[in-house]
Structure formats: C-alpha cells, structure tokens
Design goal:
The protein is an alpha/beta fold and about 300 residues long. The protein has helices at about 45, 50-70, 80-85, 90-100, 110-120, 125-130, 165-175, 180-200, 200-205, 215-225, 230-235, 240-255, 255-260, 275-285, 300-310, and strands at about 5-10, 10-20, 25-35, 75-80, 105, 135-140, 145-150, 155-160, 205-215, 240, 290-295.
Length: about 300
C-alpha cells in the first residue's frame, strides 16, 4: 500500500507518493511533484503567513489530495517547517491543513526536521558508508532555515537548525535587480556570522564529505548540466565543487531576475531566491572545510516515507 508525504516548506510545497520495501528499507517513488508556493513571502517583515501565500499552498494541496486519492493512499504525513513554526498564525494554518485535506500534519521543530532529512538523505548510502571513517554532513538549505546533520550510516551524532533560508535571506538583503555587490557581500557576511556562532566546532571535526539536498543544491546540479527538462536521475549523486558553486553564483548574480528565469536547468520560480541559495551553499561548504558536495534527491520526503513505514 503506497504512502504519501507532503513537505510544506517556506519556499515550496512538495509531494511524494511511494512504496516502501520493509525488508530492504528502500523507497520506490510512484509520483513526485513540487511547486514553488512561497509560503514564507513577507514573513520576515510581518511575522504572519499572508492570505495570498496561504492561498497558493491550499490550491496546491487540493491538487495533491486528488493525486493521493487516485493512488488510494491510506497513510500520509504532512510536515510543516520553518515558515509555519515561525509565523504567529502558523498553528491556525496547520489546523486548516489537517481539517480540509485529511492530512496528518505536524509542525516540526528544527531538530525533528533535521532528523527526518538525515534519514532520507542516507537511505541509499548507509551500506556504502559503513566502511568509511569520515562522517558526512547533510546540508538542507530551505526557504526559512538551513539544517545541518552530521553522522554516518543512519545514525546522526549532531544536528542543528539555523535561521538561514533563501526566502528569509533574500528579503533581508537583496533589494536591487540585478543585486548590488554590497548586498551579496552583506548576505554572505550575515551567513558566516551565524555559522561561526552556532555551528559546534566539535561537530565539524571528522566531517570528510558532504551531501546537499533540497532546491538550491538540485538546482545548482541542474544548471551546471544545463538540464532541460529537469532530470532527477542525472541530478541525484551529481558532485558539485565549491569552485563550481562560486562560478554559478557569479554568473547568476550578473543577470536580472527575468534573465535568470531563462537559464537552462533552473525552475523559473526559483529565480528570485537562487542567489541567496548559492551564497548559503558556498558558505556552508566553507564552514565545514569541504571543497565539494554530492547532491541528493533523497531528503525529508524519503525520510517521512520511511518513518510512516516504521523504519525510522
């Protein structure tokens, strides 16, 4: 029987319908959809989820509910993350999601979000990682926050959720089109300060590899390969060097938003926030002393599917 997981994030709303193999602990995707809904738009300034942003998410959830019914899904999980936990009207929105769409909706604390993301990211790497002494850091750059999870196999030894998200940081720092150099420098400086203050020095010791999930990383891999249309099989496992991330940032920062919308490999709806994402990805790699990162399509959606199946 298929399960469904919905991730209602600050920047996007995503659906995974999948079968889970209990004996292998693996997830087989039946349907995956993603839409940029910008739930966190304006939250930095007002502290509230706006009616327009809520409306975009509800419209998307109606579509996802129909897909779940088509697949006869009986078990579901909806995770609501940074924007909802930060907004004054977040719980009201979560209650509406539960009642209108019959979803088992949970507003996740940052630490819970991190654990589910790690479970998903490591789901197809646990065996291969068993012989490695170096721990991995999973980097999940979202719309309102970024999660860092350190561990090996499926065991996390450290996790933290930091208020560094692409929507949050774009609204805070980027006000020109194309952005002024000073705006990007201020964004990077802000990120470095938060990373220096709130990442545990001990957690960074022994980290020898990185895995990046979510829209910024998958977009970077897609742009670098000029994928049109997007191809998740070519994105999953793709290796990005820090030099490539910096080069992509420089290239995209020289463009207007309308020009970025036409870039091969980039979802046009991510054009407003991709610059902040590239800055955060680069600064995250520097913080852990990494010169490259592997991109993974397996994230909190896979983690949620495993949790629903009782495997995490």
């Amino acid at each position: 029987m298929p399960v469904a997981v919905i991730d209602i994030g600050t920047n996007s709303t995503r659906l995974l319908i999948a079968d889970v193999d209990h004996s292998r602990g693996s997830v087989s995707e039946l349907l995956r959809r993603s839409r940029v809904t910008r739930l966190g738009e304006g939250l930095e300034a007002t502290g509230l989820l706006s009616d327009a942003a809520v409306g975009r998410v509800l419209e998307t959830l109606r579509e996802y509910r129909r897909a779940m019914d088509d697949y006869d899904v009986r078990s579901n999980l909806a995770v609501l993350t940074s924007a909802v936990r930060d907004a004054a009207n977040g719980e009201q929105f979560a209650a509406r999601v539960r009642s209108e769409f019959e979803l088992d909706a949970h507003v996740l604390a940052g630490e819970q979000e991190a654990q589910l993301t790690f479970l998903g990211a490591m789901s197809d790497r646990a065996n291969g990682a068993a012989g490695q002494t170096a721990e991995a850091v999973v980097i999940d750059i979202g719309g309102g926050s970024t999660e860092f999870i350190v561990g090996s196999g499926r065991t996390a030894s450290y996790h933290v959720s930091l208020p560094l998200g692409v929507v949050r940081m774009s609204e805070r720092h980027i006000h020109s089109d194309p952005p002024a150099r000073a705006e990007l420098d201020a964004l990077a400086s802000d990120a470095r300060e938060v990373l220096a203050e709130r990442l545990s020095p001990e957690a960074k010791t022994g980290v020898g590899r990185g895995i990046a999930v979510a829209g910024t990383a998958t977009s970077a891999a897609s742009i670098d390969q000029e994928l049109d249309p997007y191809d998740p099989e070519r994105v999953h496992g793709y290796e990005l060097s820090l030099a490539t991330v910096d080069a992509l940032l420089a290239r995209l920062a020289a463009m207007t938003e309308s020009e970025r919308r036409a870039v091969a490999g980039l979802n046009p709806d991510r054009a407003p926030t991709i610059l902040a994402g590239m800055v955060l990805l680069g600064e995250s790699l520097r913080a852990f002393g990494l010169d490259r990162v592997a991109v993974s399509e397996h994230d909190i959606l896979h983690g949620g599917a495993l949790r629903l199946a009782g495997l995490g």
